[in-house]
Automatic annotation (TrEMBL):
Protein name: Transducin beta like 2
The gene coding this protein: TBL2
UniProt entry keywords in alphabetical sequence: Coiled coil, Repeat, WD repeat
A GO CC term assigned to this protein in UniProt: endoplasmic reticulum
Transmembrane region(s): none
One term of GO molecular function: protein kinase binding
Family annotation (InterPro entries): WBSCR13, WD40/YVTN_repeat-like_dom_sf, WD40_repeat_CS, WD40_repeat_dom_sf, WD40_rpt
Chain intervals for the UniProt region annotation (Disordered): 1-33
Species annotation: Ornithorhynchus anatinus
Coiled coil recorded as keyword: yes
Residue windows of the WD repeats: 42-74, 230-264
Coiled coil: 372-399
One BP term from GO: cellular response to glucose starvation
Bias-annotated ranges (Basic residues): 13-25
Length: 401
């Protein structure tokens, strides 16, 4: 069955393909994992999930897999027994990366075999579902090395694709605005900041390089200029992330440490970012490590191998450890827009965790503000926020005794 030229039902493949998929299912039994903070496990993909992304309105989670599908999940079902999802098929290929557009009416994917970017438009149906329409043309091929990430600026002004040696800045029509040679030999990660002002990358070198993407007053692209660097690690940086207000960054390195930074500086006046905290994560010394930062920058999530760790960014204390959360190494992890949940993928299921350290951080912050507050109406408001956060935390702690 097709809608606007794109299959939205189960694809009818060749007998050989079905046999391959069946044998893969038989060889890889679903990994079972339980934990009091596990909110849900989203199951539906028949292949390993390589990437996930929350929509900016917080309503949807997109996942892509080597099973040739992209699935759109409803976040309001996370705490329900059944998890609804809609499926868009990736014809004759599969997606390795997926990202929502800022208006939540489209998503982009990176195609594994074609090595190019494809745009899917989402049109809402009367029954609340979507039909998916592929844009007439894929983006031109510009990368020679494997692509490690893609992103769309929240302003909607540009798209970034990043490979091991090159970052390409595109307009939405698929025209190249600029290319950046990262000079990091073998880049591991690259992103656009939530404020859409910066692109940044890390790689073989012990730093994170940050560039500003500049537009003029009429909204036309002007140039890309070097902004600042995060220096302090003694070995390659595996990964990094921005807070939602783009004022904080976190990094994790092969030197076995993670660092938390204040980047709200006047870099045009040569002011360097401030290092706020250094924490230990010894697992980062032995292999690749992925990182996510909660929207409020209070909680840092790290993934090494198949396991996850949560640290607070106030003292650097480890608060949670989800051992062997996945049957395969974690491929991606991210917090939702509210910071209530952390989602991770690697095998055929998405694990959605309650962000208990986030609630603890709010409780601690509200208590501190309450001690200093002198105005009665302010005290009442803070007490209400404290009560809500404490109630949410108590409900999560109860199952753990």
């Amino acid at each position: 069955k097709k809608a606007n030229g794109v299959s939205v039902e189960k694809p009818v493949g060749s007998k050989k393909l079905k046999q391959q998929q069946r044998s893969r299912k038989e060889k890889q039994p679903q990994h079972n994992f339980t934990h009091p903070l596990l909110a849900s496990a989203l199951k539906g993909h028949s292949g390993n999930i390589t990437c996930l992304d929350f929509s900016s309105n917080g309503k949807y989670l997109a996942t892509c897999s080597d099973d040739r599908t992209v699935r759109i999940w409803s976040t309001k079902d996370f705490l329900e027994r059944d998890h609804r999802c809609l499926r868009a098929n990736v014809e004759l290929d599969h997606a390795t990366l997926v990202r929502f557009s800022p208006d939540c009416r489209a998503f982009i994917v990176w195609l594994a075999n074609e090595d190019t970017l494809r745009v899917y438009k989402m049109a809402k149906r009367e029954d609340g579902g979507f039909t998916f329409t592929v844009a007439p043309e894929d983006f031109p091929k510009k990368h020679r090395a494997p692509v490690i990430n893609i992103a769309i600026a929240e302003t909607g002004k540009f798209i970034m694709t990043a490979s091991r040696d090159l970052i390409v800045i595109w307009n939405l029509k698929g025209e190249v605005l600029a290319t950046i040679n990262t000079s990091q030999m073998n880049s591991a990660h690259a992103v656009i900041s939530p404020c859409s002002r910066f692109v940044a990358s890390c790689g073989f070198t012990p730093d994170v390089k940050v560039w500003e993407v500049c537009f003029n007053k009429t909204g036309n692209f002007r140039e890309v200029v070097r902004a600042f660097e995060l220096k302090g690690h003694t070995a390659r940086v595996h990964s990094f992330a921005f807070s939602s207000d783009s004022r904080r960054m976190a990094t994790v390195s092969k030197d076995g440490t993670w660092k938390f930074w204040d980047i709200s500086v006047e870099y045009k006046k040569q002011q360097d970012p401030y290092l706020l905290l250094t924490g230990r994560h010894v697992e980062a010394a032995s292999g690749p490590c992925r990182l996510a930062l909660s929207p409020d920058a209070q909680v840092l999530a790290l993934a090494s191998g198949c396991s996850l760790w949560l640290y607070n960014t106030r003292q650097g204390k480890q608060e949670e450890h989800f051992s062997q959360a996945h049957g395969e190494p974690v491929a991606d992890l991210t917090f939702d827009t509210t910071g209530r949940f952390l989602a991770s993928c690697g095998d055929r299921a998405v694990r959605v965790f309650h962000n208990a350290p986030g609630h603890r951080a709010v409780v601690e912050e509200m208590r501190g503000l309450l001690r200093k507050a002198t105005n009665e109406s302010t005290r009442r408001r803070l007490q209400q926020q404290l009560n809500q956060a404490q109630a949410a935390l108590d409900s999560l702690e109860a199952p753990r005794g």
